[in-house]
Amino acid sequence: MRGGPTKPLSKLFPPDLIREDLRDFTGYSSARTADDGRPATIWLNANEAATGSVVDPEGAQRRYPDPQPAELVSALANTYAVSPEQVVVGRGSDECIDLLVRALTAPGSQDAIVQASPTFGMYAVSARLQGVPVIDVPQRDLGTIWEVDTAALAAAAVEHGAKVVFLTSPGNPTGAVVPTDAIETLADALAEQAVVVVDEAYQEFAGPRSAATLLSEHPNLVVLRTLSKAHGLAGARVGSALCHPDLATVLRRVQAPYPLPGPVTDLAIAALAFSVARSVDARVAQTRHDRERLAEALGADPRVRTVYASEANFLLVRSPVVDELLNDLRESGIVVRDMRHLLADALRVTVGSPEEIQAVQQALAGAVQDTSAPTEPPTTQPAGPVPGPRPQHTQPSGIPTQTTTTTARARGIHS
């Protein structure tokens, strides 16, 4: 989405969704935010160095940056077709996740979060640090694609009094998209109870419309975006939360000051320029093409049981001999992600350059030729939904409670 019109907001944000003790919290007043805006030429209010340093003789970096750089906020708003008041810029979308958990759940309370597993590990990490429970609702494995059960998410949120529900679309590690009509239904069902957060880190690779198109009608909806993937700026750490202006105000108050260094802001603004947009589109198109090549290369290995369809820049693979695949690739200097902390027999492979994909193909083909041991032939998973267990409940300490059949633990960060 780029440069589209914004819709006027038709509804107010429910104030009861904000953590009670933060509803009148004003946050830290930094030297930048405390100024009254009148013209000034001499700045002596932030205890900054009077001159540049040896490594920065021009003094370009001796001043603190703006907490929410107006030019970057405007560029992000234009890119995602929202108003600047709906944008909160953070140190990657990871910080935005943490801000949401801290602003919406009371520390050490039963203000649970709900997530559709397998999923990105940062949601559970933020909840663990906040001391609130994590409710896992298993996704359905349909054989070659995954499906999020949004009705089960809503039911779990109601049952456990959840304050935040996290979705990833396209999913990480599944690569599957959650339809916007399903997201809208979920947001409606939880309108007065919970904030529904849609993490769209990989949205550029997907094609379907962004959930940001739903923001004007659903004040309890938040969309997360990042410049780490399609824009190629993972090292810069630039993410954003798109949300109702009332919630955006609270998130800015909760946030530590000066989240983005000046050079990072400049880089992000340049990356969002209209003149650069065509190169981003070309990168996305190339990734989609190479994704098919990688899927063919992985699927050709007889040890691979399933290569899941993906709308992201990676593929989820399942094999009865994951250790063997990981070792064969590592022997060729290729590192992929071991996903067995989420799925017992899975790994995830990023869509690399054409040369890197060829190296993967050669490494796997050479390993198959070198082995004389029989391998298990590829099998097809069931075409219909595979019923999963009931939502799983984990206390923040990691000590299971007997509220459901099994328990899950808050995991470490997995990107």
Automatic annotation (TrEMBL):
Biased composition (Pro residues): 375-390
Pathway: Amino-acid biosynthesis; L-histidine biosynthesis; L-histidine from 5-phospho-alpha-D-ribose 1-diphosphate: step 7/9
Enzyme class: transferase
Domain Aminotransferase class I/classII large: 59-363
Cofactor dependency: pyridoxal 5'-phosphate
Biased composition (Low complexity): 394-415
Reactions accelerated catalytically: L-histidinol phosphate + 2-oxoglutarate = 3-(imidazol-4-yl)-2-oxopropyl phosphate + L-glutamate
UniProt cross-references to CDD domains, sorted A to Z: AAT_like
Tagged with keyword Repeat: no
Keyword Transferase tagged: yes
Segments of this protein annotated with the region Disordered: 365-415
GO BP: any one term: L-histidine biosynthetic process
InterPro entries: Aminotransferase_I/II_large, HisP_aminotrans, PyrdxlP-dep_Trfase, PyrdxlP-dep_Trfase_major, PyrdxlP-dep_Trfase_small
Enzyme Commission number(s) of this protein: 2.6.1.9
A Pfam family recorded for this sequence: Aminotran_1_2
Domain of life, source organism: Bacteria
Modified residues (N6-(pyridoxal phosphate)lysine): 229
Molecular function GO terms recorded: histidinol-phosphate transaminase activity; pyridoxal phosphate binding
This protein's UniProt keywords: Amino-acid biosynthesis, Aminotransferase, Histidine biosynthesis, Pyridoxal phosphate, Transferase
Quaternary data: Homodimer.
Protein family according to the UniProt entry: Belongs to the class-II pyridoxal-phosphate-dependent aminotransferase family. Histidinol-phosphate aminotransferase subfamily.
Protein name, UniProt field: Histidinol-phosphate aminotransferase
Gene from which the chain derives: hisC
